[in-house]
Design the sequence.
C-alpha cells in the first residue's frame, strides 16, 4: 500500500477537511484551475480555428500556389496567356505533395443592369475546376457545369447580387474592355445559377465565376491558352517547401507564388494570433499556479501538528511532502475536470449554433470558428499539471523546516 497516497486520501475525504479554514481557499484554487483551462482551451480552439478558416477561404478562391507568367501586372487580370500544354498538367507527378491543379484566366469587366453597374473581375474556369472548395460557400442556387459545351452560367457573390438587385435565374450584360484603344468593348450576357458568400470583401465585391472559354474567345486565344494554374497541396503547413519545389520543376518563363506571398497582409495578421494565444496561456497558468501555491501553504499550516506527529513517528521530509503533493494533485484534477467539461461544452455549442458572431469586414468570417482537437486539449492539460506540480515543489519545501517538537505543540 502507498502510505502517502492513503493518508492524502483520508485527508481529502475527511469531514473536517470540507469545513476547515482552508475550504474557501481550496475552492478558489479549484475555480482558478477550471477558469484557466477554460480560457486556454477556448483561446487555442478559436485562435487556430480562425486561422484555418481564413486560410481555407483564401485557398478556395485562389488555390494555394499560383503558376503564371512573369509580368509587371499587379492586378488580378490576365494580360499575357500561357500554354496549357505543360509537363506538370493535368497531373504534377514530379511533386507528389500536389493534390490538384486547375487552369484559370481572369478579365476585368463591368456589369450593367437597368438601375446600376459594378466593376468586376470575371474568373474563367474549366472542366478541371474543383468545385468542392467552393461548395461550402454556396448560399443559394447550384454550381455551374463547364465540362460540356460553352454556356452562359455564372456564380456571383451575394454581395454583388444585392447591390445590383439580381436573383438566381436572372440574366445580365457584362462589358469587357479591349486592350486595343479606340475599339468598342465586348459584350456578353450571363445567367446567374447560384450565389456564394465567402465573407471576404475583396473577393465578394470583385469576382464572378464563369466559363474560361468566354475569356479565350474575347482575347482571341487558342483553346490551349490560359491565364494561370492554381495548385492545391496535401498539407498547407508545407506550402513554402512545396512552393520552392514547384518553382524548380516549372519552366524558367513561369513564376510561382504562394498565397502567403500574394496575401501577405492577411497571413501576417493571422500570425499575431499565435502571440496572443501564448500570452493567454502564460497568464492563465501563472494565475492557476499562484492560487495552488497559496492553497498548498494554507493546507501545510493547517496540518502543522500532523506533520510533527508523522515526523516523530519516523516519516522523512519527502514522505510528508508527497502527502501534500498528492493532496494538491487532487485539487488540480478537480479543477481540470470542471474546466474541460465547461470549456469543451462551450466550444461544441459555438460549433453547432454559432452563438458568437463576428464582423466579416474585420475578421473575414461571420461567426467565431472552432477547431476542436483532442491532441491540443491533452497537451494543455499536461502542461497545466506539469507546471503546477513543479512550482508546488517549492512551497512544499517548507515542510523540511518544521521541527517535530514545535509542530506538536503548535496550536
Sequence:
Amino acid at each position: 500500500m502507498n502510505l502517502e497516497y492513503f493518508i492524502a486520501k483520508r485527508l481529502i475525504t475527511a469531514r473536517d477537511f470540507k469545513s476547515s479554514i482552508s475550504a474557501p481557499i481550496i475552492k478558489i484554487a479549484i475555480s482558478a484551475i477550471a477558469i484557466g483551462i477554460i480560457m486556454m482551451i477556448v483561446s487555442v480552439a478559436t485562435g487556430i480555428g480562425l486561422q484555418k478558416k481564413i486560410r481555407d477561404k483564401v485557398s478556395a478562391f485562389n488555390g494555394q500556389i499560383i503558376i503564371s507568367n512573369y509580368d509587371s501586372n499587379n492586378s488580378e487580370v490576365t494580360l499575357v496567356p500561357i500554354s496549357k500544354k505543360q509537363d506538370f498538367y493535368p497531373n504534377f507527378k514530379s511533386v507528389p505533395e500536389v493534390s490538384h491543379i486547375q487552369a484559370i484566366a481572369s478579365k476585368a469587366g463591368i456589369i450593367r443592369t437597368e438601375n446600376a453597374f459594378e466593376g468586376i473581375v470575371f474568373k474563367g474556369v474549366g472542366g478541371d475546376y474543383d468545385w468542392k472548395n467552393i461548395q461550402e460557400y454556396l448560399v443559394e442556387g447550384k454550381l455551374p457545369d463547364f465540362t460540356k459545351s460553352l454556356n452562359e452560367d455564372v456564380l456571383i457573390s451575394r454581395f454583388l447580387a444585392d447591390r445590383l438587385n439580381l436573383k438566381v435565374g436572372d440574366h445580365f450584360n457584362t462589358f469587357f474592355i479591349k486592350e486595343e484603344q479606340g475599339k468598342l468593348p465586348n459584350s456578353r450576357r450571363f445567367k446567374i445559377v447560384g450565389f456564394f458568400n465567402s465573407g471576404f470583401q475583396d473577393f465578394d465585391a470583385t469576382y464572378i465565376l464563369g466559363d474560361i472559354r468566354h475569356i479565350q474567345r474575347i482575347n482571341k486565344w487558342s483553346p490551349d491558352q490560359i491565364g494561370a494554374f492554381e495548385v492545391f497541396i496535401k498539407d498547407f503547413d508545407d506550402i513554402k517547401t512545396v512552393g520552392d519545389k514547384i518553382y524548380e520543376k516549372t519552366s524558367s518563363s513561369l513564376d510561382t507564388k504562394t498565397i502567403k506571398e500574394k496575401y501577405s497582409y492577411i497571413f501576417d495578421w493571422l500570425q499575431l494570433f499565435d502571440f496572443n494565444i501564448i500570452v493567454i496561456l502564460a497568464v492563465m497558468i501563472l494565475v492557476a499556479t499562484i492560487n495552488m501555491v497559496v492553497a498548498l501553504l494554507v493546507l501545510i499550516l493547517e496540518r502543522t501538528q500532523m506533520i510533527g506527529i508523522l515526523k516523530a513517528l519516523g516519516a522523512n521530509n519527502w514522505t510528508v511532502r508527497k502527502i501534500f503533493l498528492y493532496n494538491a494533485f487532487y485539487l488540480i484534477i478537480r479543477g481540470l475536470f470542471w474546466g474541460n467539461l465547461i470549456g469543451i461544452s462551450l466550444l461544441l455549442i459555438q460549433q453547432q449554433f454559432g452563438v458568437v458572431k463576428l464582423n466579416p469586414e474585420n475578421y473575414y468570417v461571420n461567426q467565431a470558428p472552432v477547431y476542436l482537437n483532442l491532441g491540443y486539449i491533452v497537451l494543455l492539460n499536461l502542461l497545466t499539471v506539469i507546471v503546477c506540480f513543479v512550482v508546488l515543489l517549492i512551497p512544499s519545501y517548507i515542510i523540511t523546516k518544521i521541527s517535530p517538537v514545535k509542530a506538536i505543540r503548535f496550536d
About this structure: The first helix runs from residue 3 to 13. The two ends are 31 Å apart (CA to CA). The mean pLDDT is 85. The CA atoms of residues 43 and 72 lie 42 Å apart.
